[in-house]
Amino acid sequence: MRNKPTQAVFKNTSHSPVKRSYKLNKQPVFVIVAFVVILSLLYAFSGPSEKENNPPVQIQNVDLNLPSAPLLSYIPEQIQDVETQWQYVTVKKGQTLSSIFDDIDLSQSLLYKIIHIDKEAKKLTKIFPGASIGFVKDEGGQFKQLKYKLSETQELFVKQEGEQLTSKVVELPLETTIHSAKGVISGSLFNAGKKAGLTDNMVMQLANIFAWDIDFILDIRSGDKFSLIYEKIEQDGEFIRDGKILAASFTNQGETFTAVAFDDGNGVSYYNPEGRNMKKAFLRAPLNFSYISSNFNPKRFHPVQKRVKPHRGIDYAAPRGTPIYAAGDGKVIRSAYSKYNGNHIFIKHPSGIVTKYLHLTKRYVKKGQRVKQGKTIGTLGSTGMATGPHLHYEFVLNGVHRNPRTVKLPKASPLKKSKMPEFKNYAEPILSQLDSLNFDAKHIAQTKIAKTKSS
Ligand SMILES: [Zn+2]
């Protein structure tokens, strides 16, 4: 789905506000390479990734030149009164609207009348645990008002006006604000993210962008750093959820990678400043693994058999049942069971590449089937000759086994030439914004050094 370009404003940055228009789009679904594992290893995260939906988003222009919010004392007394009259009930498990009305001394006949006002008010019968309902009563304890959030962007109001009960649905606009953050890793990426004010979800997004270039399990070092410009979806100044990353850079062991989100007409992807897609035609690892239990080694000396027995793939250890992804687009040329390989799948890709996946518990694809990069083709197991649950993964180029960890992966297609001027126009200001963040970081580091020296 494509949305109309909307306006947004830079906020919380040390730079003058720059109004720019950009496209809000559904987050591209990135295949997470070796990522859930970072979560489990470094952060013990277990929840599902945030559900992506695309509610109507209305952008408000935040004029930073205006004075800040009016002082509380300027708010007319009337409004303050209404504010304090709301009483909130949080729906508990097993609780019905009827029992809530009992609890707060409102009659069942009132409830009956309310849910029969119209079909919007009828939605009150579908309350769920955790939801909040606001009530206003007058001094005599009589019902005056009720409010209930029907969705992220709609709130239902029911009002008693004399004898009349009325209902009204109020639209609650969402606001997309733009923020910047940067951090240096000293412990884990997640800690550094937290220090920089990022949610775990945003840290994941950041890592997903660079997952084709950086192995976030094995290659992250103390001193690695990142900076990013990203969106937050807010309502009435309150954080609702993360938006997308507009631009980011990540320096890993001295090497810096930079990416900009850009919609080439087929949805948003991340590109480097030259317009090359950050994605590669192959995943570095076709699963989220815990650790490598056996590396690629063409000259491995077998300790038991006392002879050179090459290990022509990589063994990735992970819990049994871990999804295994197709490393790249291709066609399944084998999906079968054998005594040694157990359940195994071979995929043939363009440019003479074949990838092999061994010891699976389950196979989800058939011979002849076409698969896209990131499709779950089976689950990890220990079928065949395997001592424990792991994936034995092979990468074969023109008939020669290559190390999947180090082989130079083919690049995904770059931006079309015709899109380049638009891309450059879009990317330039946001990259210079990102650059100035990095400059600030350097500046701070230098100031620190200077201070240490002088003290
Ligand atoms: Zn192996």
Notes on the structure:
There is one protein chain. By secondary structure, the protein is an alpha+beta fold. It folds into 3 domains: 2-30 and 175-279 and 419-451, Nuclear Transport Factor 2, Chain: A; 83-171, Roll (Nuclear Transport Factor 2, Chain: A), CATH 3.10.450.350; 291-402, Glucose Permease (Domain IIA). Helix content is 20%, strand content 35%. The protein contains 8 helices and 25 strands. The strands form 6 sheets. Strands 13, 16, 18, 19, 20, 22, 24 and 25 form an 8-stranded antiparallel sheet that branches. The chain has a 5-stranded antiparallel sheet with strand order 3-4-5-6-7, covered by helices on one side. A hairpin with a 3-residue loop joins β18 (330-338) and β19. The chain starts with a strand and ends with a helix. The structure holds zinc ion. Residues 294, 311, 313, 315, 392 line the site of zinc ion.
